[in-house]
Amino acid sequence: MTTPNSSQSRVHSWAESFKVYRQPRVIGMLFLGFSAGLPLLLIFSTLNTWLRDVGVSRTEIGFFAWVGLAFSIKVLWAPLVDHINIPFLWRLGKRRSWMLLGQLGIIVGLMGMAFTDPTANLAQMAAFSVIVAFSSATQDIGLDAYRIEAMDTEYQGAMSANYVMGYRIAMLVAGAGSLYLADFYSWILSYQVMALLMGVGIITVFIIKEPDRQETPDEIESLVKSNRYLDQAQTMVLNPFVDFFKRNGWVGGFILAFIGAYKISDIIMGNMANPLYIDLGFSKSEIASISKVFGLIMTIFGGYVGGMLLMRIGLLPVLLLGATLVCLTNILFAILAQVGYSLDFLTLTITADNFANGVASSVFIAYLSSLVNKSYTATQYALFSSFMTLPGKFISGFSGVIIDHTDYTTFFLYAAGMGIPAILMVIGLMIYDARQKADESSEKPTEETVQ
């Protein structure tokens, strides 16, 4: 197995580590990250705030987490994104055309949500949320493939950091911005404005150029032309999975399990953070100012710290740091539930949590990118990101039920405990990596043997 650390050709100086953020394609990830990040909160925490604000029960709000399963099953249509050109958009290229199609779907879904009353038609709100989720997942497939193909592995930490920054700026807009608009005007206007802001993504798609990608085997084109559909399915769908396990052997199963475990604590916790704030008595403007604005600053800071640490000490040690920080900081939410209304303690909790998530997110994206074979970029990355979200999204659907039958403190302690397996699994990967390097060193012929 090729380990993530071994993919880095050399250790970079601090000066080189800073200069990487001046690369044009690294800068471009700011805008693509914004496009990817804008829809997320609008179907999760911001929507949860809207629903709780108008009196929807926590149990029903919890079930809305299952809308996010669209991100967890996107691997099912990722092969199409990898290999099929959209006929009327073919001049844009595979990556840009699929991103554009996803962006248009997001706009349709958000406008539908804007004109839906959740107290009168909760099912319709859920349906439009699903449209946004599936469209956003489609955009993500094309965007992730673009990011991985645009630059080499050693630059993926910087690409991820800028992606996270753009993503978090969008989350600030979709989080704080939407809450301010809802507080001073209405939820309808708020979601209309968010739909219009997806124009940033559309403009970016028309400005950027397709990456110089490593094409999939020539057999794909010949199979498509010959209409041998069964062979097409095997080549487009099965081969990426076979390739992954062929390169990694039995460790591939452990890696997929680790991917599913790494973000589970954060996903479970995040589903009920905003309902907690509402029930503790914080106003929408206070949530926006502290949780979104200040939280964004700490997330960006954590993302850049994670990117630089990756360049200096490698992926696995920073993965361990991120997993540990996320687990520990989730405990602060349990304490906040006991403290009650306190702007100071809310600020402390948001500071620690968002810094931890910034570090963990940037390095985890880089880790997933290092596992991809660029012959199957979109499909394999979609596989990884699906495993990353599927367990957490499914379990988080019951979060409202847990809180309604216990309390917030119990729930957040439970969410923190769900992060322990990820910590243990990173340690396992580090031990395996050390043994692999030791075996490789022992197999190299000594100078005396060569002579």
Description:
54% of the residues are buried. Helix 15 (264-270) crosses helix 20, helix 17 packs antiparallel against helix 18 (315-339) and helix 18 packs antiparallel against helix 23 (420-443). The chain has a single domain (16-435), classed as Up-down Bundle (Growth Hormone, Chain: A), CATH 1.20.1250.20. The two termini are 30 Å apart. The chain is globular. It is built from 24 helices and no strands. It is mostly helical and 451 residues long. The chain crosses the membrane at residues 26-51, 63-86, 98-116, 122-143, 164-182, 188-208, 250-273, 293-311, 318-339, 345-369, 381-403, 409-432. InterPro entries: AmpG_permease/AT-1, MFS, MFS_dom, MFS_trans_sf. Its main location: membrane. This is MFS transporter.
SSE diagram, text form:
Blueprint: H1 14-19, H2 24-42, H3 45-53, H4 58-63, H5 69-72, H6 78-83, H7 94-114, H8 122-150, H9 156-184, H10 187-197, H11 199-207, H12 219-226, H13 229-248, H14 251-262, H15 264-270, H16 273-280, H17 284-313, H18 315-339, H19 343-370, H20 377-396, H21 399-405, H22 408-417, H23 420-443, H24 447-450
Question: Which parts are unreliable, with pLDDT below 50 for 5 consecutive residues or more?
Answer: 2-9, 216-224
- Shape annotation: globular
Percent of sequence in beta strands: under 5%
What profile does the largest beta sheet have?
none
Structural class: mainly alpha
- Please name the fourth-level CATH homologous superfamily: MFS general substrate transporter like domains
Tell me the total number of β-strands. 0
Q: Give the end-to-end Cα distance, rounded to a whole number of Å.
A: 30 Å
* Helicity, as a percent range: over 70%
Q: What is the CATH architecture annotation?
A: Up-down Bundle
pLDDT averaged residue by residue: 81
The number of helical segments is: 24
Tell me the name of the CATH class: Mainly Alpha
Order of secondary-structure elements: HHHHHHHHHHHHHHHHHHHHHHHH
Work out the radius of gyration.
22 Å
Taken together, the total number of domains comes to 1
By CATH, the topology is: Growth Hormone, Chain: A
Main location: membrane
Pfam family, one: MFS_1
GO molecular function: transmembrane transporter activity
InterPro entries: AmpG_permease/AT-1 (IPR004752), MFS (IPR011701), MFS_dom (IPR020846), MFS_trans_sf (IPR036259)
